[in-house]
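Q: Sequence in, structure out?
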Amino acid sequence: MQSYLGRRIKFLATAVLLATYGAMAGASFAAEPTKLLIAHGAISNNVAPLWIAKEQGIFKKYNMDVDLVFIIAGRAMQAMLAGQVLVGLVGGTHVTNANTGGGDFTMILGLENRLDYIFVARPSIKSGEDLKGKKVAIGTPAGSASLATYVALDHLGLVPRRDNIALLGIGGVPERMGALRSGSVEATSLSPEIGQVVVSEGYRVLVDLGKENVQFQSSGLVVPRSLIKTNPQLVENVAKATVEGTAFIHKPANKEIVLRSLGRNLRLDRGDRVENAYQGLVAALPRRPCPSMEGVAAMLKLMAQHGLNAKAAQIKPEEVADMSYCKKFEDSGFFKSLY
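A: Exactly. Output:
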């Protein structure tokens, strides 16, 4: 039996495609809000501009009726490849894998332009040496969390094969946290706003990648290039609404609204944890959320280096990210008008 989520994805994808073809044919129902499903591949701070854009009516301002759904990043990209989802907030690694596999996607906004994960271990693990012969949970095989784990292990002087470290593909954040707490694994990579929960329980931060300032194009707003050709206005509207959501977050007057949104969406039940998430968000979220071409280049190098995608070495950053929307928003004064 088809799941509710599957039916909802199919319905919304069909609605968007019908709106697209109708617009191309000169249909007269443009006044009707465009139904759109946006998938986000993680539950973390970088989704906040989308949560805010929905909750504050910014998507509606651009005549869009948006549903946001969490689908773990690798599967979100698969749904986009299948045409079930037209817009996704996913990592650059997934765009690279999709494009080297025959897809044609591009990242038009960059909401997280560095690896800010913390590599967290059980209290008994006091150093990298203690991880030898142990199990480590990674996310989806070629996702940002997985690559963060490889970088953290590198930082600790560890090589999984040489040091007999088993990397287990335990995908989502709740599953990885559960595996850590149960003792099924000794370490994993988590976003800091979520990782703070287990750190407060006595788990140990072995590497804080945010402090290492690792250039890396993590999550961004991704669309198929075909959608840019068939419905450029829809793509621009989604991008503008996301940029406005970003600006809303950065305005100090909106802090209480943003705090409530983070607490609800991240399921943080303590004020200090919500405050920490907020401070991390405003520090890391680019005010002009453009992809980092340097971050894309670094990501491609790391993917090839760690054997996640041998073809990544032949890919140019321009094949993963598109700066034209950011240039348009800069040249038109749209960015400047929001601050």
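Confidence is low (pLDDT under 50) at residues 18-29.
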